[in-house]
Each structure stands twice: as C-alpha cells, then as structure tokens.
C-alpha cells in the first residue's frame, strides 16, 4: 500500500515546494484536486508536475457535478470536464479520476408508478458513465466512483450501492473509491465491508471520524489496514482531511507515521499464530 496526500494539504507555497516536502517525508503520491486545476488549467498542471519527485496518484473531483441532472446541456458539460481530467490522468500515469455524480438531493422529478427519482437517476448514471469509462480506457486510466455520506448526497452512500452501479456498467475501468470517513458513517463494519467489496477497490481516502487527520479520532485504523491487506490492496491511500493545530506540517508528519505504524501492526497481526482452542 502507498500513501498519498492531497496537494492542498502539503506544506509549501508552490507546487514545487509541496512536492519537495512530500519527497522528503516519504509520501508516495500526490492527489490533485479539481479545485487546484480547472479543466482549462491542466496544461499548467502538466508543467507543474513535469519533474516532480513524487507522482500524481489521482485527480479528485470535477468542475461540476451534473451527471444526473435533468438538463442535458448540464450533463454534457460535466461529462466533457471529466474527459479532460481523464486525459490528464493518462498523461501523468495517475490511477484515475475520483467521480461523484451528484451532491445534495434529487433534481429529477418522481415519475412513480413508472419509476421513482432514485431509479431514474441510477439509470441515467449508468448511461452517463459508459462513454466516460470508455474514455478512461482510451487514456489508460480509470474512473473511480466514490460513495459519500448521507449528509452530502442522497444517491450513492454505501459501498454496495456503488458496486451495484459498477456491475451494471460492465466496464473494467470503472472502480470503487472507498473513504474511511464516509464509511464510518454509513457502514455497520468498515473492515468487513472492505472484505466484501475488495475486488472493486482501486483507491482509498484517509480521514478520521472527525474529518481530521488519521489518529485524531476513534476509527480503528489497525483493523482497517488489516482488512485492506486481506483483500491484497496495493494502491494509494490519499489524505483527504483537515489538519489540526497551527503547525500543519508537524501534524501531517505525525499522522503519516501513525498510518505507517498502523499498517505495520496490521501486518504483524497477519503473521501472528492463531490461538489453539482450549481443552474442554
């Protein structure tokens, strides 16, 4: 497993300074946000990361999120924006673009008894995803579908709901992006959920239940890392969180060591001999 940090969380005033901090502190990848670079700024992003000592792991988000909007023009705009980010991912060798179809509540009218709004949105999402996933394949990258918590979206909140869409699309370049923070809200058991959806997981976001850095809350990180090891996850885990305190660099460095220690403890659990049953 590799650890990435979002560009905005890294100490430094320029991309080069942030890249140097990441390299000096053993960070394996840098996740770029759509808020860092708009679709028409991706040429600058290519220049900024041309000689980076740490590679781009992923692109997080999109310029707009109208993939299941009833207005076809708005849907087309979001699709075209996403295509540009996927092309960037292909050029820099990133895992893929993290994709959220909609924030907030439904925008499509309920057409029951024909179909309710959720069913209509899912059908529309499947059709919207097909050309995007084909474009991802053309650019040798992936589209990463992220479930959010119920307070941010109504449509895809649990990992199983995302897997349902992935299965319907039937494309190899559509994968699951799993976020510890959202899972802590929506899943009954995060480690068990990782084990149930393991073959679909291509990327992970790191944030504690506080939405701050790992180690700041009550998530059982050793159990979570053990589950990821059990499903043979070898991808990036990217920090997407707040950082406490005035010295953000110090906080981030401490948390990075915490995550590395959690991974090591999880590995040791896997090597530990199983206890023999006691005699009756």
How would you sum up this structure, described in words?
With 280 residues, the chain is α/β, with parallel strands linked by helices. The chain has one domain (2-271): Divalent-metal-dependent TIM barrel enzymes (TIM Barrel, Alpha-Beta Barrel). The protein contains nine helices and eight strands. Strand 4, helix 4 and strand 5 (142-145) form a beta-alpha-beta unit. Helix 7 (190-197) packs parallel to helix 8 and helix 8 crosses helix 9 (248-271).
What is the structural class?
Answer: alpha/beta
The CATH topology is given as: TIM Barrel
The percentage helix is 40-55%
Could you say which overall geometry the principal axes of the C-alpha atoms support? globular
Let me know the average pLDDT. 95
Please give the CATH class. Answer: Alpha Beta
Low-confidence stretches: none
Question: What's a quick, concise take on this entry?
Answer:
This protein has a single domain, classed as TIM Barrel (Alpha-Beta Barrel), CATH 3.20.20.150.
Looking at this protein, list some descriptive labels.
43% helix, 14% strand, 8-stranded parallel barrel, TIM Barrel, alpha/beta, 280 residues
List the helices and strands and how they pair.
Layout: E1 2-6, H1 15-24, E2 29-33, H2 42-48, E3 56-60, H3 72-92, E4 96-99, H4 117-138, E5 142-145, H5 159-169, E6 174-179, H6 180-186, H7 190-197, E7 201-206, H8 221-230, E8 236-239, H9 248-271
């Amino acid at each position: 497993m590799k650890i990435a940090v979002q560009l905005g969380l890294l100490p430094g005033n320029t991309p080069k300074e942030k890249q140097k901090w990441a390299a000096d502190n053993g960070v394996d990848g840098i996740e770029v946000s759509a808020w860092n670079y708009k679709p028409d700024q991706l040429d600058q992003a290519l220049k900024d990361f041309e000689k980076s000592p740490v590679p781009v792991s992923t692109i997080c988000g999109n310029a707009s999120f109208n993939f299941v909007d009833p207005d076809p023009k708005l849907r087309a705009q979001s699709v075209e924006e996403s295509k540009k980010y996927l092309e960037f991912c292909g050029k820099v060798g990133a895992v893929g673009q993290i994709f959220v179809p909609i924030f907030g509540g439904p925008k499509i009218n309920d057409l029951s008894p024909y179909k309710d709004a959720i069913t209509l949105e899912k059908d529309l999402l499947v059709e919207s995803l097909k050309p995007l996933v084909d474009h991802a394949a053309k650019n040798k990258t992936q589209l990463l579908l992220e479930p959010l918590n119920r307070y941010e979206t109504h449509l895809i909140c649990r990992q199983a709901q995302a897997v349902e869409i992935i299965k319907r699309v039937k494309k190899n370049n559509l994968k699951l992006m799993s976020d510890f923070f959202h899972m802590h809200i929506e899943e009954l058991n995060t480690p068990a959920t990782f084990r149930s959806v393991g073959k679909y997981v291509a990327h992970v976001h790191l944030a504690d239940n506080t939405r701050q850095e790992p180690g700041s809350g009550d998530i059982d990180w050793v159990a979570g890392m053990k589950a990821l090891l059990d499903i043979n996850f070898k991808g990036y885990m990217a920090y997407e969180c707040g950082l406490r305190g005035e010295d953000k660099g110090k906080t981030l460095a401490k948390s990075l060591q915490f995550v590395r220690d959690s991974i090591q403890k999880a590995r040791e659990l896997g090597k530990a001999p199983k206890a023999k049953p006691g005699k009756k």
